[in-house]
Specification:
Elements (H helix, E strand, L loop, with lengths): L3 H28 L4 H9 L18 H14 L1 H21 L2 H12 L5 E4 L15 E5 L2 E12 L6 E7 L9 E7 L5 E6 L10 E12 L3 E2 L5 H37 L1 E2 L2 E2 L4 H29 L5 H26 L10 H11 L6 H10 L2
Bound molecules: acetoacetyl-coenzyme A.
The site of acetoacetyl-coenzyme A has 24 residues, from α4, β3, α6 and α10.
């Protein structure tokens, strides 16, 4: 059972998603247009830094509130959900956990209140699943770090004001030589590179971010030198719960559309909902979505209780993303030929679902993380 406070945040996000997002989602996807105004409104509602204390610019709610809100936003628009998720989990969270008081004041407050937008620069052309294989370097020189390298597939890359950037401060130490930095994107030497044309979540920005001899003040080191890889993995644990919630939202949108369609579409003289083949598909979809949601909520509750939650986050992300893929595939099957066209939203849900099995750690990586805990 959800508490009254949890129901309130769920209702707030649901009503906003239905009134202010869902009618624009199709056009945003078709045009690949970043939803600037929607993100501003999400910020005004306090949804860009949900679990950050109010004193640091956030809403001061727990992690369960975060996933409840994110699911509702994802039902309406998966692109908007990932923009929100990256800012909340991958940017605000490491600043909250590892940032100095000065960093929190300067960067976390505007990010958590949604006045600024963040991105997370870990992936590189040769460091995807093997995130430890960082080639970006940050060389210490006269009290500064000189940052050089290329980051790939950066969600919010084109729009972000602030980037959490991972780079090697000591190449000889491999993963233990990686450090994290808070970087202002307006600094000289930073360029947005190739903008990706994606299959799904087309309204969210995704690009290379290129750093060429960028001068980073020493006080912008996040945590300690050499702590970067652990900061990245700890941050991703949290991010994966968010992607689990996004997946549940996408799957729910597909189930709701397929159920409504099955009740109105007639073949052989009756609504196709009356056929057991369709009922079984819908029943499996509903069951898998509930199971996925419970895994997501468990991980969020464990995180909020300061319990270890790495395995549970990986399970939630693995199961929820696979559920999103299965449910959206079956939803298209229920729509038949119409489902394969852009006249109905299920083809968008299907395209949006696929990325959830890839970003913030592929399904194969989630299994590695889970297996490591067995
Ligand atoms: N939290 C903190 N520390 C952790 C950790 C965690 N969850 N998991 C492991 N560590 C520590 C280990 O204890 C170890 O520390 P010691 O060396 O002191 O013992 C250290 O980190 C290294 O651990 P491993 O040797 O196990 O690391 P590995 O190189 O084998 O990698 C991995 C493990 C799970 C494969 C990891 O590389 C991984 O998660 N890869 C996937 C990367 C990923 O998810 N990328 C997503 C990019 S971001 C994105 O998609 C965002 C977006 O735009 C939407």
């Amino acid at each position: 059972m959800l508490s009254e406070q949890h129901k309130l945040i769920q209702d707030l996000a649901r009503s906003f998603a239905q009134k202010e997002i869902s009618m624009y989602a199709k056009a945003l996807d078709a045009e690949g247009k970043f939803p600037t105004e929607i993100i501003q409104k999400l910020a005004a509602l306090g949804l860009m830094g949900i679990s950050v204390p109010q004193s640091d610019g956030g809403s001061g709610l727990d992690h369960l509130s975060y996933v409840l809100a994110l699911e509702e936003i994802a039902v309406a628009c998966a692109s908007t959900a990932v923009i929100m998720s990256v800012n909340n989990s991958l940017v605000c969270e490491p600043l909250l956990l590892f940032g100095s008081e000065a960093q929190k004041k300067k960067y976390l407050v505007p990010l958590a209140s949604g006045k600024q937008l963040g991105c997370f620069c870990l992936s590189e052309p040769d460091a995807g699943s093997d995130a430890g294989n960082q080639q970006t370097v940050a060389q210490k020189k006269e009290g500064k770090y000189i940052l050089t390298g290329t980051k790939n597939f950066i969600t919010n890359g084109p729009q972000a004001d602030i980037a959490i950037v991972f780079a090697k401060t000591d190449r000889t130490l491999k993963k233990k030589g990686i450090s994290a930095f808070v970087v202002e994107k307006k600094w000289p030497g930073i360029e947005v590179g190739k903008i990706e044309k994606k299959m799904g979540i087309r309204a969210s920005g995704c690009s290379q971010v290129i750093f060429q001899d960028v001068e980073v003040p020493a006080e912008n080191l996040l945590g300690e030198e050499g702590q970067g890889f652990k900061i990245a993995l700890r941050t991703l644990d949290s991010g994966r719960i968010g992607i689990g919630a996004q997946s549940v939202g996408i799957a729910r949108a597909a189930l709701e559309a397929a159920t409504a369609y099955a009740k109105e579409r007639k073949q052989f003289g009756q609504p196709i909902f009356e056929f057991q083949a369709i009922q079984w598909m819908l029943a499996d979809m509903a069951t898998q979505i509930d199971a996925a949601r419970l895994l997501v909520h468990r991980a969020a509750i464990l995180q909020g209780a300061n319990h270890s939650f790495s395995k549970e986050a990986a399970m939630a992300k693995l199961y929820a993303s696979q559920t999103a893929m299965k449910v959206t595939t079956d939803a298209i099957q229920i729509f038949g030929g119409y489902g394969y066209t852009q006249d109905y939203p299920v083809e968008r849900f299907f395209r949006d679902a696929k990325i959830t099995e890839i970003y913030e750690g592929t399904s194969e990586i989630q299994r590695l993380v889970i297996a490591a805990h067995l």
